[in-house]
Design goal:
Length: about 375
C-alpha cells in the first residue's frame, strides 16, 4: 500500500509499506477514504515529539471502510463506513470504565504518561496512523463507530479529533452563563473551542492569534471578537483592558508546544528542544485569566520540562484542567449540534490534497501558506 512516512524533521514522503494485517482477534483493517493533517502532527513533523521513528506513518484523524475484521469482532463487518477516534483504548481498564479513554492503561508501554494514539510516535504506543491507504484498528468493538447516514464524510472526519477536542476544551473550562472566554489560537481546535463556548453559555468570546486570515475565520465561523497579539506590546495587558482589568473568566490554550510571541522561549523549545514546548500560550493563559478563574489546556505539549508560571497559577487560585480529549464521549452531543444546523464542521476545511502530494500538504500547513486552516488528505485520488 501507499503510505506517508517520516524521514526526519521537515521530511515526509509517500512510500510502499506492507498492508497491515490482523494481529489480534479484536482488530479490524480499515481502508482509509479520508484523512487530515492536524496541528499536532506538526509537532512530529518539526521533530519535537520524542521517539518519532523513521518510516512511522502519521495521521490520527481518519475515516474509512472496514475491509477485514478479527474473529472476535461483533459490532463491525466488512463494508461498514466508520469513523475512528484518535484514542486507542481497551474499554475495560480502570480509566476506560470512567470514560477517560485517552488515559487507557492497556494500549501503551508508556501508559503512565499517555494512552495510545494513532500515528503519534512510539511515545504513544507506536501505532501507524491513517495517512495511508489502510490502517490497523485495534479494539475494533470499542473505538470505531459506524457513520450515521445523515452525517457527511468530512464532518465525520473532523469529529475524530479537531471538533471533539475543541468541544472538550470548552467543556473543561466549566463555562458559566455570562462568562467571558478567551481562546488562544485560531487553528481548527481553537475555532471549534470558540464556537462551542457559545453553546455553554458564554456571553463573550475573544480569539487571540497573529495571522489575520485565521482571525477573520474566527470572526465569521466562531462569531468571536479577535485580537492580533502582534499589534500589541503586551497581549496580557490588552486582555486585562478588555475585561475591566480583571481578566477573563476562562482561558483556553489551543496552541500548545509551538506558540509564537516570545523569541527566546520559541528558540529554546521549538528550535533547540530544551523544553517540552514553548510555554508562551500557557503563561498568557495564566496571566490573562482572572483570579479564581479556569485555564483549559488543549494545546499539545511534550513530556519534558517547560518554563510554566506555576507559582502565579497557585497564587491566583486558578483551576487548571487538561487532557487529551476522550473523543467518543463527545460524539452524541456533537451529532445533535450538526443535525440541528448549529454548525457545519467542514466549513473550516481550506485544502484537500491527494496522498501522493502529502509532502506539499505538510509544507503548506506548516508554513501557513495560501490561507491554510485545515488540510484533508485523500488516498487514491
Amino acid at each position: 500500500m501507499r503510505a506517508m512516512t517520516y524521514r526526519g524533521p521537515y521530511k515526509v514522503r509517500v512510500e510502499e509499506k506492507d498492508v497491515p494485517r490482523i494481529e489480534h482477534p479484536n482488530d479490524a483493517i480499515v481502508r482509509v477514504t479520508l484523512a487530515a493533517i492536524c496541528g499536532s502532527d506538526l509537532h512530529l513533523y518539526h521533530g519535537l515529539m520524542p521517539d518519532t521513528r523513521i518510516s512511522h506513518t502519521f495521521g490520527h484523524e481518519f475515516i474509512g471502510v472496514v475491509e477485514e475484521v478479527g474473529s472476535s469482532v461483533e459490532t463491525l463487518k466488512k463494508g461498514d463506513r466508520v469513523m475512528v477516534p484518535f484514542n486507542i483504548y481497551c474499554g475495560s481498564c480502570w480509566f476506560c470504565a470512567r470514560g477517560l479513554y485517552s488515559n487507557c492503561h492497556n494500549v501503551n508501554p508508556n501508559a503512565t504518561a499517555v494512552g495510545g494514539i494513532y500515528g503519534y510516535s512510539h511515545t504513544t504506543g507506536g501505532y501507524d496512523g491513517g495517512q495511508a491507504e489502510y490502517v490497523r484498528v485495534p479494539f475494533a468493538d470499542v473505538g470505531p463507530s459506524i457513520i450515521p447516514d445523515d452525517i457527511a464524510d468530512e464532518d465525520a472526519l473532523l469529529m475524530t479529533d479537531a471538533l471533539s477536542t475543541g468541544y472538550f476544551g470548552a467543556q473543561l473550562g466549566e463555562i458559566a452563563q455570562g462568562d467571558t472566554v478567551v481562546v488562544l489560537g485560531a487553528g481548527p481546535v481553537g475555532l471549534f473551542a470558540a464556537r462551542s463556548a457559545w453553546f455553554m453559555g458564554a456571553a463573550r468570546v475573544i480569539v487571540v492569534d497573529h495571522l489575520e486570515y485565521r482571525l477573520e475565520k474566527a470572526r465569521t465561523f466562531a462569531h468571536a471578537e479577535t485580537l492580533n497579539f502582534a499589534e500589541h506590546d503586551d497581549i496580557v495587558v490588552e486582555l486585562k483592558k478588555q475585561t475591566d482589568h480583571l481578566g477573563a473568566d476562562v482561558v483556553i490554550d489551543a496552541v500548545g508546544a509551538e506558540a509564537d510571541g516570545d523569541l527566546v522561549q520559541h528558540v529554546t523549545s521549538a528550535k533547540l528542544k530544551l523544553q517540552g514546548g514553548s510555554p508562551i500560550a500557557l503563561n498568557w493563559a495564566i496571566d490573562g485569566v482572572r483570579k479564581g478563574g479556569t485555564v483549559s489546556v488543549m494545546g499539545a505539549y511534550g513530556p519534558i520540562f517547560s518554563a510554566v508560571k506555576f507559582g502565579d497559577a497557585m497564587n491566583k487560585g486558578l483551576t487548571l484542567r487538561m487532557n487529551q480529549a476522550p473523543v467518543k464521549r463527545q460524539w452524541p452531543r456533537l451529532f445533535e449540534h450538526i443535525r440541528a444546523g448549529h454548525f457545519t464542521p467542514s466549513d473550516i476545511v481550506t485544502h484537500r490534497v491527494p496522498l501522493e502530494h502529502i509532502a506539499e500538504g505538510y509544507h503548506l500547513f506548516s508554513a501557513k501558506l495560501d490561507g491554510n486552516i485545515k488540510t484533508l488528505v485523500v488516498p487514491g485520488s
